[in-house]
Design goal:
The two termini are 23 Å apart. The longest helix has 14 residues. The protein has one domain. It has a two-stranded antiparallel sheet with strand order 1-2. α1 crosses α3. The protein has 74 residues and is α+β, with helices and mostly antiparallel strands. A hairpin with a 2-residue loop joins β1 and β2.
């Protein structure tokens, strides 16, 4: 069902955090992690560490990453 959020919890930089995204975004991010040959946690951690704007929510940064992956065909 599109529109509902799926929450996942991660430990990033020693801190526990949760991210809620639509399943479609998680699917793109999971596929990208597989394509890169790395765990989803590593992709999420790299996105977290690479944010230029610390006020940008991690969920937003992950959505932007997923959009970029989808636009570029994976």
């Amino acid at each position: 069902m599109a529109g509902h959020l799926v929450k996942r919890s991660f430990t990033l930089a020693g801190h526990r955090t949760s991210v809620a995204l639509e399943p479609e975004f998680w699917a793109v991010l999971e596929a990208e992690a597989v394509r890169r040959g790395e765990p989803l946690l590593r992709l999420v951690a790299a996105t977290d560490a690479g944010r230029d704007d610390p006020d940008l929510p991690l969920a937003s940064a992950l959505r932007v990453l997923a959009l970029g992956v989808a636009r570029n065909g994976g």
